[in-house]
Structures are given as C-alpha cells and as structure tokens.
Amino acid sequence: MKITDAKSFGGEIRRRRKELQYTQADLAQFCGFSVSFISDLERGKATAELGKALYMANILGMDVCLTKRG
How far is CA 57 from CA 10, 43, 69, 70, in A? Predict the structure, then answer.
C-alpha cells in the first residue's frame, strides 16, 4: 500500500492491530508504549515519533519500505 501521510500510516497500523486481534492496551503492554501514543499514532497524529512508529510497525509484523518515484 502506498502511504502518503500520517493518517494513512496510522490507519494501516490500526488495521493490522485489529487483524491480529490485539487491543491498544495489549499492544501497549507488549511494546512498552502508552495507550495514548498508540491511539495518537492510529489517528494519524503528525507529531508521533518516527522511531516509535517504525518500531510499532515492526512489532506488528509489517515492513516499511521507501522507494524512489519514477
């Protein structure tokens, strides 16, 4: 999927979390982040920390790949 903004990134994180049948609280306990961070990330808060966001994707079994356009 092509991700073009924080909202679409967060939506994919939410979709995957639900696919795995984890609650935000489950995920928070597993990765050590707060439920409020996970909620902000899933809602597409643009100021969410990139390192944490990438770690969250990794925890959920997702790869983030950057490719050159054109």
Answer: 10, 15, 23, 26
